[in-house]
Amino acid sequence: MIKVPRFVPLPPWFGGDLQTVRNYLRPPGDILAPWPGEILRFAVKDGTGDELVGTLHRPVEEQQKPLVLLLHGLTGCEESSYVRVTARELLGAGYPVLRLNWRGAGPTLGKTQSFYHAGRTDDLFAVIGSMDGALAANGLAAIGYSLGANILLKYLAERGGLSHLRAAIAVSPPIDLHATQQRVAEYRNGRYHQYLLARMREERPCPLEVCSILEFDNRVVAPMHGFRDALDYYAQCSSGPHLGGIRTPTLVIHAADDPWIPSKAFREIAWSQFRHVRLLMPWSGGHVGFHALGFRRPWHDEVALRFLAATG
After folding, report:
1. Total-model pTM
2. Which superfamily, per CATH, for 16-175+246-310?
3. Which among 44, 63, 217, 237 is most buried, taking Cβ atoms within 10 Å?
């Protein structure tokens, strides 16, 4: 059990929307310069010839702490601001970090035969399974954000006690993909919806007439990955129904005012039934925001560091 600091929004970032967009309005600069990166490549053995690419950073002084995998969200990559900020905080605390790009994202954009999706846990399994023994000598942990957090939770549930991770943190996970799609499609989220759809269209081939995320998932994601349609994709890949299978110490962080992911999906789960999964749901924080008063780092990073320290 860790002591969780109270979340108080950092002025002037009040409300879920401002908490969410601050990452875009004030992106960090070249914050990882003190820790030079090393490119790592991980082959996937599915006949596509695809590979996953990530950037490894080591702390200035080796402290025998676990390597932490950082898993970006939808339309993100290793360069996403929230990934780089967390990497800085972890490296400063002595943790080695691997900023992993999902298949078809970041350096592999436009270079793969297949692509990542919300339930593609086999790629995470491939990366962890082929991890160099020296890199994993002190164990592995993972932090996922948004869609990457859903993949992480689903992976943990599928692997049970064989996950090979010592600890996991899921930040703003869409544990109910259908509910998330419906929320993002609401009128008040029109700008978010159009932004995400435009980025999704950049990532993979898409018919010009597709004008919604639901249609994109119906016509692009589902047929490409063997799902009947978007609803089948959402049903099979949502992590929420499978949380009971997790055997790794896991922290789920979600803001009640997340404008993209409804808190109802979290409130309907009896979290006390899980031995290994804990939910933190502050009243504010937005979507992968958590910019808090009194902390020099995002609140979710402060909590993650405390959790990693407590889990060894």
Report:
1. 0.97
2. Alpha/Beta hydrolase fold, catalytic domain (3.40.50.1820)
3. 217
